[in-house]
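quick one before i forget lol
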Amino acid sequence: MKTVGMSSLAAATGGAGLGSSWAADGAAGVNRDSTDAPADGTTRVTFKINGQTKQMDVAPNVILLDAIRDDLALTGTKKGCDHGQCGACNVHVNGRVINSCLSLAVMHDGDEITTVEGLSEPGRLHPVQQAFLDHDAYQCGYCTSGQMMTATYVLASEHIDSSDEAVREAMSGNICRCGAYKNILAAVQSARGKV
């Protein structure tokens, strides 16, 4: 479930703060007329995030995580290790879970992205979010959003067995430093059939 392809390039550039970007359509950043040409050294990308179409001009080395957090102000997705090893930055892209810290924003033109903010509906938590609450699986909270994005993917995947062992293996890309693995497993299993 890890990002492949250009991920090593994103990791090598270090990501954060190396490039500049702006986002249109009510997002954070400098608002411009979307018909203007992209600024020198940037590329215009358009993707759907949490059901809303967003257009951004991004430098080639801006990672998806920074575009989501810094330019679109969707801060539920967390920056943890910044090396794709902790899973705190996990989001869904076209229905698959990826490490957004290892993926360049320019790679996602035309993609559909879901962050933890996109799981719930107004006034109602997603079944995985509710299960994490019910089973005290939120732990310190920092990596919880990534845990929930992976759990949602795991529960929707027909190729991942429903056994505790298979769930642990599928969730192993998410590292919890708070010792709540038992509660996380219980939450994931209790949400089975509700996703």
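fyi The longest strand covers residues 43-49.
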